[in-house]
Write a structure and sequence with these properties.
Layout lengths: L4 E4 L3 H9 L4 E4 L5 H6 L7 E4 L9 E3 L3 E5 L4 H6 L1 H6 L1 H8 L4 H6 L2 H7 L6 H7 L3 E4 L3 E3 H4 E3 L2 E2 L7 E7 L3 E8 L6 E10 L2 E7 L6 E2 L1 H9 L3 H5 L16 H20 L1
Parallel strand pairs: 1-3, 2-3
Antiparallel strand pairs: 4-5, 5-10, 6-7, 6-10, 8-9, 11-12, 12-13, 13-14
Amino acid sequence: MYAFDYQRAGDAQGAVKAIAADADAKFLAGGQSLLAAMKLRLAQPSTLVDVTRIPELKTISVDGKVVKIGAAVCHADVAANAPIQNALPGLAQLAAHIGDRQVRALGTLGGSLANDDPAADYPAAVLGLGATVVTDRRRIAADDFFLGMYETALEPDELIVAVEFPVPERSAYEKFRNPASHFALTGVFVAQFASGVRVAVTGAAPSVFRATALETALTASFTAQAARAVTIGADGLNGDLHASPEYRAHLIPVLAARAVTKALG
């Protein structure tokens, strides 16, 4: 590690002001990705602005139509929240299987989305549910938020304040995880709304994406059989020492079918 300044922000405006004043400063949330990158000298911010103590970023509210979660809420608190479990069990179950216990205790919703790791779990829920990312200055639809590998629509000094998840009729998430990191080799989030089905895939490509062929099939028939009947092409999918593009393509409809079975109870 190397020397850097540390600031603890008391409100969102103060945090943004501190970042805007220093081009080399970074927001610090759970630090599960940033601190690891700093140890490897892949990131060398001059200042870390801690946003985890900002009250407005720590709140959770649930009604019949929307689950709103503050950006600094950790994964473990999402998983254990009874109102979320009742209104949006698919999201609570996803949060319960992110990383390990230590990661879930420190990692945050906002930090995960801002980092946009290709194999992270939360992006699948945000895109699959058609959520809205609320920042200190605007509202960004999920379909416009994720731009590419580790790339989002956020400006350098823009802070995620909360995420608003619409409550679907049914939803569920299934992933084939790396046994060491618990990241998703491939993960599929399925959400059924009155207007149709949304399906988001993480871990299989440079960034999370919607599987439109599965959406069409499941809107017509929300069954595991309909999901398994879909063929996904391997073009553009990731290949590495863990899995080939073809294997990831095979996993997508299989995991979608399992998610549908889980959603149907």
